[in-house]
Amino acid sequence: MEPYLDLDANYSDYGTFNPNSVAAKAPCGIDVMPPVFKYLVAFIYGLTCLLSLVGNSLVVLVIAYSKGNRSVTDVYLLNLAIADLLFALTLPFWAVDRAHEWIFGTPMCKILSLLKEVNFYSGILLLAGISMDRYLAIVHATRAVTQKRSWVRFVCVGIWLLSLILALPVIIFHEAFLPTEKMKWVCYENIGWNQTSEMRVKLRILPQTFGFILPLIIMLFCYGVTVHRLYQTKNSQKKKAMKVILAVVLVFLVCWLPYNISLLADTLMRMAAIAETIGETCDLRNSIDAALSGTEILGFAHSCINPIIYAFIGQKFRNNFLKILVTRGIISKEALTRFRRGSSFSSTSGITSTTL
């Protein structure tokens, strides 16, 4: 999801004054980010990029290597890793943007912004797909259906297409431009100086509804029922597999929910729903802008976390990674045998994911 820079309404440095905008009720200065903070954020983006490229490449390698033992969940997780890999490639550009300004032109602005949006939407939609798969496999015991991988490929293609559709406003409106001579170059949507806030709100509500709120509701329902059913049974293998999935979902929410709450607050402010009840408009706007900026960093960092979850919680992921190392002659078979003895790994649990 893309934060919305307030270019339309408050100050001579921002363009034409728009009296219909809520944000225009009080003239506001421009908050300048301290240079140290800019470079710190750029460093975080660079580190996230490195960890994401290494970690998600390993996830793709492990799942691709385990082709004969790949489950429906693995297909979803493979697509999730690919989405994070594509997004990681954009992070060096956003790091330069944070530390300096946008220097890469309009075509790169559109492409990289698209990848960022698609990563977010595909991420939560894929997690919603996993939640439905686990719900069917565990609650309704439709193992025969969930083990068929042919249909899940079409679901994943549909998720990528829907993510592209939800991200279309980015391709249409984003460009590199200089708002005024006193500001730096930005990669942002350039809708125009009239009714900008109103247009941004309209472009935001539909993707936020179908790209975050509805998938979140699906995930909460499916996992709520699934976890309740699991803890009524004594199947410890399924419980262990669900721990990894729930950790992935929880981390996604921790990373992206604060940003979406900040985005919702910004939407409500622009719709005049909260501006009348909270003091100074400028203070409110500056606080929300700071929240959007800070929580976006947390959202970006999410792209490198899933492989860490698999490595520390997913026994099968570690086992299959070690098998690859044995095949390549990097470690001995004895080391793999010792690892298996030291873990509760079982090769007979067909219902669980290769990655988990």
UniProtKB/TrEMBL annotation:
Q: Where are the transmembrane segments?
A: 39-64, 76-95, 151-173, 209-231, 243-261, 297-313
List the protein's name. Answer: C-X-C chemokine receptor type 2
Q: Does the keyword Transmembrane apply?
A: yes
Q: What keywords appear on the UniProt entry?
A: Cell membrane, Chemotaxis, Disulfide bond, G-protein coupled receptor, Glycoprotein, Membrane, Phosphoprotein, Receptor, Transducer, Transmembrane, Transmembrane helix
Its GO CC terms are: external side of plasma membrane
Keyword Nuclease present in the record's keywords: the answer is no
Fetch the Pfam families from UniProt: 7tm_1
The G-protein coupled receptors family 1 profile domain, residue ranges: 55-310
Q: Function, please?
A: Receptor for interleukin-8 which is a powerful neutrophil chemotactic factor. Binding of IL-8 to the receptor causes activation of neutrophils. This response is mediated via a G-protein that activates a phosphatidylinositol-calcium second messenger system. Binds to IL-8 with high affinity. Also binds with high affinity to CXCL3, GRO/MGSA and NAP-2.
